[in-house]
């Protein structure tokens, strides 16, 4: 079944085993590839001039001291201080720039050729694969840190991804996942408001988010694939009032974006593959 980007799903399906919420219908792989082409030139990202922002951030990263960068990643560096870093769905490469400056060999997977061109213009040493992680066929135990930030909710088969990440991580290596948290009070309030207004709540939003997690079922998914949980915490969107106000977002979207800088909508989970 086909549907338009941004349209409400007919229903949400909850897995009776793991309680993960799936969009219904789910976009096809081909639809997602098309949707992510020139991703940061469209929608809210285009209105926020996001590529220009990230370009400035990466320039700032290159001018920061090692101590400043280590403070940003102290949760990870406490467990893995160097080696090979992989960013799945690496977007515009901000995370890769940080780890590169910290001395890691940086790798990334990304569908969008525009993103790959953007990264290589600023980070020519990056090792990039255009396409899906499951198509990259990295060797066993290749990486010391794998980052998958605001990607897992976009996947058709998140379990297959976590299994693949476990395979390509070295023993003792670290997995970092960032994703929305459906158990956050702000999400629950949003659902209630939509029901009161007789609207279908876009908890699984449009074409993009095919699955969404609460804290418990994200932990369960990671544990079932053999990981040890190190830490899990909430996170809000990082942005400033001035940048939001100067953007080309509509007034309504500016207000929503500003509220999101105060409320905890997202979660971060850090896990470890057992071993030496």
- Class derived from helix and strand content: alpha/beta
- Which strand order spans the largest sheet, edge to edge or round the barrel? 5-4-3-6-7-10-9
Residues in helix, %:
25-40%
Flag low-confidence runs.
Answer: 1-9
List the total number of helices: 13
Average pLDDT confidence is 84
Largest sheet: 7 strands, mixed
Q: In one word, what is the shape?
A: globular
The helix-strand sequence is EEHHHHHEHEHEHEHEHEHEHHE
Q: Which radius of gyration do the C-alpha atoms yield?
A: 19 Å
Query: Whole-Å distance between the termini?
Result: 47 Å
Strand content is: 15-25%
The total strand number stands at 10
Keywords:
21% strand; seven-stranded mixed beta sheet; three-stranded antiparallel beta sheet
Summarize the structure.
The protein has 276 residues and is α/β, with parallel strands linked by helices. The chain has 13 helices and ten strands.
Describe, in plain words, how this protein is organized in 3D.
- This protein has 276 residues and is α/β, with parallel strands linked by helices.
- It is built from 13 helices and 10 strands.
- The protein has helices spanning 29-35, 43-47, 50-63, 66-72, 74-77, 94-101, 113-122, 133-136, 158-168, 185-196, 215-224, 241-246, 251-260; strands at 11-14, 21-24, 84-88, 105-110, 127-130, 143-149, 169-180, 211-212, 228-235, 266-272.
- It has a 7-stranded mixed β-sheet with strand order 5-4-3-6-7-10-9, with helices on both faces.
- Strand 1 and strand 2 (21-24) form a beta hairpin.
- Helix 3 (50-63) runs parallel beside helix 6 (94-101).
- The longest helix has 14 residues, at 50-63.
